[in-house]
Every structure is written in C-alpha cells, then in structure tokens.
C-alpha cells in the first residue's frame, strides 16, 4: 500500500520515537521514581518559560480549558458577572461560556474581522467595571489566526481582570516565555507537540495563588502527596516531559521548517491557478496552518477523495458522527454556509516534507 | 449540476446500518462495483437526543452511524458520515411543518427522496466520481430501449414495494440510481443475506414511520420545531353547523375517527380540514368516500406528458391497494383522477401514484 501522507498536524501529532521509547520504558519500570516526575514537570515548565510551580497537569487541552474557566468564574465576586470570549473559540471554551450564560452570567462574544482577528476597539468597548474574566485563543485551530494577546493582556492587567489564553496550537509553534506575557493562565496539550494523547497542561501565573490551590485540589498529577503518583498515568507524564524537552531543543528550527513549508504550499496552491481562495492571510498567522476554499467541490467530498488517494486532511469542524458541518469559525469571518462547507484545512508539521506537499498538490489538481 | 469525471463502476450507497441498505451495499460489491458507504446525517432533535439518550432513536441517532460503520467494515467498503442537515431541514422538515399548518397531511419520505437522497447525495456521489447512488429501496429501475426512458417497476417482493415514494423522480435522477433490492423475492431473502453481517435485525423497526420523529409524537414535534400551537376551533358538519370544539387542526387527518376528543353518539369522521378558518369538517361514514380527486405537481415516468384520458390504477396512500381509475390532463401540471369505485379518505397533501400493472406511470400531490 502507498504511504499515507499526514497533513493534519493541527488535529494531532504523531508521538516522536524517542518519546514513545521513554513511555514504554516508564511503563516497564513500575516503581517510577518521584524524581522523574519532578524532572518531567521541569521540562514542561522550561518549554513554557515559567516556574515548575506554575504548571498544573490535566488530561487534555479541553480539560485544561474547562477546569480553568469553571474554577475562575466560581471565584468571581457577585458584581463581576460579566465574562468575555470570542466567537471563534474551540468548543471546549465556547460551549462552557454558553453553559455559563445559561447559568446567569452575562457573556460577550467578541466578533472577529474577515481575517479572524478580534477587533480591538470592540474589545475595549466591551470591557467594563463588571467584567471579571476574559478567555481567548492564541492561534485559531482552523484558520491559524493569531490574536493580539499582548495588547489585550496589558489592557486587562491594568484593570486586574483575569485573562486566560488557550495556547493549545501555540506551544512549540511560537517561541515565547509564558511568564513574560501579560496573561494569567494558558492551556496547552501534549499531543499537539509530538507527545502522548491524554495529557494536557495549564500554566497559572504565580500571583493567582488561590486559583492554583483550587486547581491542584481537583486535578490529577498534583504534587500534594507522593502516594498519588503510583495510581496516575506517570509514564505519560514522563513522556510529556520528554516531548517538551525535545521541543525546547529544536523549537527555532521547527518553526523555521514550518514557515518554509507553508510558504511553499501557498505558492503551489497559487500556481494551480484554480480559483482557490486562501482564508485569513495574516503575516503573523500560525506557521503550519493553511485554510482555503475550493472553487466548487464540497470539503467533505474533497476530504473523502483525498483520503482515498492517501492524504489525511481536515476541515477542522467534524461533529461527533464524523460528518462535516459548516464551521462556526468560517461563518464568523464572513463566509456563507455554502462557502464554509467548501473549505479545507491543511496543517503542516515536523515530519512534513516538500515532496509531501508536491504530492498533495498533484492530488488537489485532480479535484479542482 | 457540476460536471465531474464519472465512473459507471462506482456507486455511493446510503447506509443506515439496517438490513436493507446493508444488503444493497453487499450486492453491489458482489456485482463488481466499487462501493462507498455513506451515512447521511439528517436531523438532530435536541429534545429527543437528550431525553431519549439510550433509545434507538430512529435513523438519525448516533448509534446508526456506528452500525453503518461496522457493517461497511464487514463488507469491506470505505465508510463516511456526511452532513445533510441544512438541505434536510429546508426541503423536508420545513415542508412537513408547512403542510400541517395548511391542514394537509405531508409525506416527508417522498420529499427526502427527491431533494436529499437523489439530489444532494447524488451531487456528493458525483463529486466522488461515482456515476450512481444506490439505496435499499424495494423498487426496480431499468432503461427501456423502445422509449429510451428510465422506467420504474414494483419490486418482486410486492409487500415491501416502495415505488410509491419515488414517483416524482426525474429521468435525470433515475439514470443515476441503483436499487438492487428490487430483484429480491421477499424480505426474508434479504434478511438471510443480512444475517452474515452484524446487523441488528430485530431491533430496527421497519422504517415506515417518520425517521426524524422516532417517538412518533408528531404533534409534540410540530410544537417544538415550529410556531404551530394548539388553537381551539370548531368541528362543523358539511352544512357549516357547529358540532363541537376541537383542540387544534394539527391533531387531525382526513378519514380519522378516533381521538376526536368529542363523542357524537354515532361514528363521525374527519372529512376535511379548513386551516384558514381553523375548522374541522366532520361527516358520517359515506361522507369520507369520494370517486375523484385533483392532483398537482404531477410527474410522469412512463412518458413525458399526459396527452388525453388515460386508464390505469392509482394508490392514494402508501398502504392502499391500487384502484382502477382514469386520468384527465388539466392545465398547470395538474390531473383529474376519476376512480371506478369511490375511495375512502382521499387526503390532501398525500401522494396519488399511478400504475399500469407493475409499471409506475407517475403521480402527483392530492390537492
């Protein structure tokens, strides 16, 4: 059988061979030492650019988002019942805000422009004396747009409003130290950076001490007691640490690799001259995500055709049945439902090569 | 329709995970076709998906996706779930609601076949390079060389025949449809083949009910999904005398006797529903019989147009026996149907479908 070409790294990434070895080794060694767990957490903290104590471990990025948001809003005083997010968030944020809205919170969903960027003027107008919490994503998972989190964070910090950033697509794909950003919390995930699935993390800024205490009390992999570590998935935690250490080592070359490939892909798409429209073309977009609209074929048909030709791509918005519906993100940047249903997401990764892209472009040429 | 390179050996099969579609897919594969299984996501009633979480939940339930996925794996064909919710809502559910609003009794399966299965799904099939769409319907479609038309004939398993629900397909649609179950002599023969696969035969009801209302409470469905509400009105007789009070016209269909909510000392039937006046006309037994009807939106399969009076047989509902009649062409794509014997409860909104022996002549919507 022909080698399959994976172009869906924004959905998940393959575990690196070195990481898999570490995990298997840790499983064989039942008596995982306390020390190794500490080392893993240090490796994670190093990649994130923060202190070990500012990292909480969860079971995935979605859990990080869920648990952080719910913990924060519980801590808000009565008169701070206004919370803000954007309309292009991941379901694990958006649906939590919708639930909170039903629970009585006043929720604002920030609109984005045609490139998927939050309108800052609208954001400034939206924040008021009742605002207690803001959550937005770093890079959008479907169109790769980067939000102006530094500007938003500084504005919120001056008003002492808690600011959470969903950094699931950002860690390893941009060089930053989270402790130097004006944000109070960030979610991230191991399986987006070539680590195991079933592992996520939360950075919580040192000053949010009480929030951190609440989180530690309800999350696994806490360091409260050594007795816990033997019942938890410590091999994965160690693998997570190993993936972070490898990521920290080659982050700059990784990002450069992605940027080069992305440029190569965009050029190749444009050379097709097939009336393909690339969505959200900003210079500071995610280095590995390209979202584009096909001239006539529906994205689900294109995905099936590509699947049968040996390519894994995505639209970024499958429902629980696996069927593709029109993406709320694409509708938010102004596409009509019919147009949104013609959009494909290609996401590049560590193991993508120019030859992969060449083959993908030949397949795409057949479809358009 | 877009023009793609279509492969006559390639077919997309609509898969519910049930007996019929499973066997259709298996037969086509055995015949040498390249088969792609597709489960159509049509409708999600939030009310039902929450309260009936563990239920079988009709063909739109998540379990049907998993059933379909499993049988496709066993047959050895690729499987995909595809979203058709928007087109289903616009062409089937909205039509269903609108008909009830106007006091008519809709037939959503016919609309679904015309606009969803053999239009939207066919378009997807073409995008996948497949010339054909196939389903587990019991009907025979073939090309007649003499007239150079695609014709439809009742299935060999006459009790299961579903030609009633496809009378309004165009020649261009029929050209691209395969219905391999039409050749089977009985449902039993189909079940026998299905038993090779992991199909939950016993649990799936024969899907003759409305798939998007798995609890069959269509009044509850209409109230949840439209602005239709129970508005009290009058029962009247054919002279306009008020006989009593009804609890909303959506609760009634022509020919209905039970569940009127009032008793009259003699059997009374719904003869007509007047949505404009919010009235329900009742009458005694013989009042629900009539020997003629007018049908609109007529489509013919056997020929292009009705040129003059035409003697054939007609079914006024899915389960009716064909009755002898004569068709008379009217302007605006309508026909008058005159029956040899009066028919009971000719129901506006339902389809009247014409046959000549086993051959499907055509049909229309009862006005």
Automatic annotation (TrEMBL), chain A:
Report the catalytic activity. Answer: (sulfur carrier)-H + L-cysteine = (sulfur carrier)-SH + L-alanine
Q: Say if the entry is tagged with keyword ATP-binding.
A: no
* Alphabetical list of InterPro entries matching this protein: Aminotrans_V_dom (IPR000192), Aminotrans_V_PyrdxlP_BS (IPR020578), Cysteine_dSase (IPR016454), PyrdxlP-dep_Trfase (IPR015424), PyrdxlP-dep_Trfase_major (IPR015421), PyrdxlP-dep_Trfase_small (IPR015422)
Domain named Aminotransferase class V is located at 5-360
The EC number of this protein is 2.8.1.7
Tell me its cofactors: pyridoxal 5'-phosphate
UniProt keyword annotations, A-Z: Iron, Iron-sulfur, Metal-binding, Pyridoxal phosphate, Transferase
Endpoints of the signal sequence: none
Asked if the Swiss-Prot or TrEMBL record annotates the protein with the keyword Iron, the reply is yes
**Domain of life, per lineage:** Bacteria
Protein family membership:
Belongs to the class-V pyridoxal-phosphate-dependent aminotransferase family. NifS/IscS subfamily.
The identity of this protein, by name, is cysteine desulfurase
Taxonomic source organism? Fusibacter ferrireducens
List the top taxonomic levels of the source.
Bacteria, Bacillati, Bacillota, Clostridia, Eubacteriales
From TrEMBL, chain B:
Active site located where?
112, 211
Q: Report residues binding ATP.
A: 14-21, 40, 136
Q: Outline the extent of the tRNA-specific 2-thiouridylase MnmA-like C-terminal domain.
A: 290-366
Q: Where is this region: Interaction with tRNA?
A: 160-162, 317-318
UniProt KW keywords: ATP-binding, Cytoplasm, Disulfide bond, Nucleotide-binding, RNA-binding, Transferase, tRNA processing, tRNA-binding
Show the Pfam families listed in the entry.
tRNA_Me_trans, tRNA_Me_trans_C, tRNA_Me_trans_M
Where does the entry annotate site (Interaction with tRNA)?
137, 350
* Domain tRNA-specific 2-thiouridylase MnmA-like central, chain residue ranges per copy: 227-283
Q: One GO MF term, please?
A: tRNA-uridine 2-sulfurtransferase activity
Q: Which SUPFAM superfamilies match?
A: Adenine nucleotide alpha hydrolases-like
Kindly list the residue ranges recorded as spanning the membrane.
none
Q: Does the keyword Transferase apply?
A: yes
Q: What is its EC number?
A: 2.8.1.13
Q: Which cellular compartments is it found in?
A: Cytoplasm
Broadest EC class assigned to this enzyme = transferase
The record lists the catalysed reaction(s) as: S-sulfanyl-L-cysteinyl-[protein] + uridine(34) in tRNA + AH2 + ATP = 2-thiouridine(34) in tRNA + L-cysteinyl-[protein] + A + AMP + diphosphate + H(+)
* InterPro entries reported in the protein's UniProt record: MnmA-like, MnmA-like_C, MnmA-like_central, MnmA-like_central_sf, Rossmann-like_a/b/a_fold
Location, primary (coarse class): cytoplasm
Q: What does this protein do?
A: Catalyzes the 2-thiolation of uridine at the wobble position (U34) of tRNA, leading to the formation of s(2)U34.
Family label: Belongs to the MnmA/TRMU family.
Q: What is this protein called?
A: tRNA-specific 2-thiouridylase MnmA
* Organism encoding this protein: Fusibacter ferrireducens
